[in-house]
Design a protein that fits this description.
single chain, seven-stranded antiparallel sheet, seven-stranded mixed sheet, FAD/NAD(P)-binding domain, alpha/beta, 2 domains, Cholesterol Oxidase, domain 2
Length: 530
Amino acid sequence: MATGYDYVIVGGGSSGCVLAARLSQDNAVNVLLLEAGGRDTNPYIHMPVGFAKMTSGPLTWGLKTVPQTHANGREIPYAQAKVIGGGSSINAEIFTRGHPTDYDRWAQNEGCDGWAFADIQPYFLRSEGNTILSGAHHGTDGPLGVSNVPDPQPTTRAFVQSCQELGIPYNPDFNGPVQEGCGVYQTTTKNARRCSAAVGYLKPARDRPNLTAETGCLVTRIVVEAGRAVGVSYVKDGASVFARATSEVLVTSGAIGSPKLMMMSGIGPAAHLRSVGVEVVHDLPGVGSNLQDHFGIDIVAELKGPTSLDKYNKPHWMVWAGLQYLLFKSGPVTSNVVEGGAFWHSGPTQDRPDLQFHFLAGAGAEEGVPTVQGSGVTLNSYNCRPKSRGTVRLASAVPSANPLVDPNFLSDPDDIKISIEGVKISREIFRQASLAKYIKRLHVPGDDVQSDADFEAYARAFGRTSYHPVGTCKMGIDEMSVVDPQLRVRGIDGLRVCDSSTMPSLIGSNTNAPTIMIGEKASDMIRGNR
């Protein structure tokens, strides 16, 4: 079976939903969006608190890293979404953009002309539908709903106060003129519901006659003829389908899925492709290299009483919270769990924050994080701009096989040094008066962790992904670049990659809003609007 479209978009995540919505605004073009996962019918997706239920299970690919050489040989769970909306459907809904200098670095140092902060800020503003903030730093009419946490938990408020007691100033807007400081995150929620890219962008566009959005479609290959991408082969309900793209194939499968698909299609490092039995179509050595991710390290405290969201793990409180949400759209279900945060410095010589903190009003909310008896809280920290680089490689030529993901965490000595400082600062925040009055004991790390060697051992034993992989189809002009600054794949016509995999280096914050920005900018480049 074969069908034809102007644009075929592979991957219905954050950027794919943006592209589908923006490109289909032109009635003269036909757009096909293909997503391997299912529709976003799971109720946990739409309840802000549902994040805590989705870092493993059927809405993810079930990935684990290869054994991490510098993290005690652990195979670390590596949640990547398998559902329409991608990461924006299962993430913690934190709305941050990164530091302006991150994007200036792309443009000035990494060969990405047109991607300086002044160039991309209009796309951030175009995407944003902020219900609280406005002005030069915020958009109010965009498809991505953004709002405040309606009623932060008492421990979240105490966290923000404890940060101030430690000397970290209060910041009401991490996306404003100054990034550093502590506060309560804004979230990608609207009217007490998650606003994923599928909700904000795709849902309003789905009834357009020129847009076809299909779920449950495993794309097995980008078809290249005479050096041009002409469509994709995919499997749906056991049947093989070919979708022809008369204009372009747009790959938006994320920092793990996009390089996998490229390599499955014979586009990538030739020696590796041959080693797993994939016929080489185009030798492009950078595909699957340059993997970067934030290595988050948690500390967990047990509380004196039921003063965190863990209280609602008990059946009767869970029922009460559910009724409150259904009847009044209020209460603990409106929490994104990761309510509070901070951007701060690992030392006095840093001219911009190099650490980010996430405060969770609960313990064990994510796969791989220690839990406690009763109620607890968690504080996660990571080095904003790690130097470690890893890879995504094929395990075999079987399309359904998960790839080999190796973030190579902590391979650079500077990464462990900055990570240690983050854990130290986290523990000091827990010791400040406002938060300490809630804490019964620090569960991990124990009191025996005192020296730098102790902290290093703790980081290697407990650190994990922060769900921010980027860079595996990097943008630039050097020989390891996969796409040019127009996101066009080098050496193949009619093919672009338009997602987080194209970031040449990791930004110092969460990555969902920047991924949506990439989709917005890509839609203009594809339509010739710049």
